[in-house]
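In keeping with the milestone schedule agreed at the kick-off meeting, the structural modelling team has produced records for the first pair of proteins. Each record is given below as a sequence line and a structure-token line. The laboratory manager (R.T.) confirmed that both were archived under the project's standard naming scheme.
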Amino acid sequence: MLAGLGTHCSLSLAAPPGTSQALPVLLVVGDSLSAEYGLAKGSGWVALLERRVAEEHLPVRVQNASISGDTTAGGRSRLPALLTQHKPAVVVIELGGNDALRGLPITATRDNLNTMTTAAQQAGAKVLLVGMQVPPNYGRQYTQDFSQVFSDVAQARKVALVPFLLKGVADGPDAATLFQPDRIHPLAQAHPRLLTNVWPALKPLIAR
């Protein structure tokens, strides 16, 4: 399943009450899957992540810079300013689905993800790359090549990887019941699973 091309943009998440704005920033740069497209505010996986961080008293402040419809090229162009503004300790890159929807070259997707990862590392941030997969109707070779992009970049840059954000949602037996009518964006009830997919790779990057 892929992230859609809507124009909705989630607002940045504020720090929990009583939390100092001086806390290190965990920056999420993503598309509609991270921007709460079609969801009530506060029900997406990034909002759930913010609550998890607060519950576990982890010293980080979540900043959601996700925009629905964004591509890796868009993220690449936005990232330098975000790094300068937020000086994040951790950067989560959740982009690529819209590249496939638009039929953009896989080589460009790989180059953009690599450039973003490198820029974040050079700014002193730890990076988590969140992968996406496309349905079989895209063709076997394209499906394999697209999935491989994320692991290739993660291996080359030696960063953490979530192979498939929608694992257990898009590929599960109840997939049809877990998506909005567009069959692209998960319902709010599926977003805890998205966080479950991300959390094991992300938590070790958050320094206590």
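The second protein of the pair:
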Amino acid sequence: MAPTRRSPPLVLLFTILTCGIYYYYWLYTTASDIRNFLGDADINPGMDVLLTIITCGLYQFYWYYKYNQKLMEMQDRAGMVQQDNYIVYVLLIIFGFSSIGGIIMQSQLNTVWDNTYYRQA
């Protein structure tokens, strides 16, 4: 089954409108999509969200590191140039804009989905 292509601006808008609750949903669904794409049974989206909540967001530093690495692997599999944005994600988290990191990652995921699933022959 092809992953859901999400609009990056809507990810931000829904995060704002739901006072951050959508962001946790986005973390879960993104981890699920990546797990399915890579066939990586070690990825546990529920645990990622739980750890993000109970650490008051500190787990996001690791989450973005982990999934940035996974995204680069996905880009490689899709025949794309790998983009390492971890430093950008860290700076956004430090300054309180982690959901902007979500927009960047979702945009890159959409490109992977386009190159893998939605490419018209």
